[in-house]
Amino acid sequence: MGVIGKLFKNGRSQAVRIPAEFRFEGTEVEFRPGPNPGEVILSSKVEAAGTLDAFFKSRTKIPDWELEGFLEHREQGQHERDDPLA
């Protein structure tokens, strides 16, 4: 089993006390659904898009399991080109 963090209320919000070895830099984090029902992935907030450098930095933050088979299973049927002289 992994390391356990504590849940607590802060006013009307719910918060998570993160163990020291998993602390983030900055002031914001990003939540997204995990691969299994009920799982949540918490990660550093991705830099604002707009530069290729930001794009490539964000690519390294995506776990490999999210990219597996991303484009491998899409169907690409045969496309017939129209005859431009017809």
Count, helices: 2
State the helical fraction: 10-25%
Strand content: 15-25%
Instruction: Please list the strands of the largest sheet in the order they lie side by side.
Output: 1-2
What Rg is obtained from the alpha carbons, in whole angstroms?
A: 21 Å
Question: How many individual β-strands?
Answer: 4
Largest sheet: 2 strands, antiparallel
Shape: elongated
SSE pattern: EEEEHH
Q: Which whole number gives the mean pLDDT?
A: 78
Structural class: alpha+beta
State the domain count. Answer: 1
Termini gap:
67 Å
Can you describe what's shown?
The protein is an alpha+beta fold and 86 residues long. It has one domain. The protein is 14% helix and 23% strand. The protein contains two helices and four strands. It has helices at residues 52-59, 64-67; strands at 6-10, 13-17, 29-33, 40-44. The strands form two sheets. It has a two-stranded antiparallel sheet. Strands 3-4 form a two-stranded antiparallel sheet. A hairpin with a 6-residue loop joins strand 3 (29-33) and strand 4 (40-44). It is elongated. It starts with 5 loop residues before the first strand and ends in a 19-residue tail after the last helix. The model has no long low-confidence stretch (mean pLDDT 78).
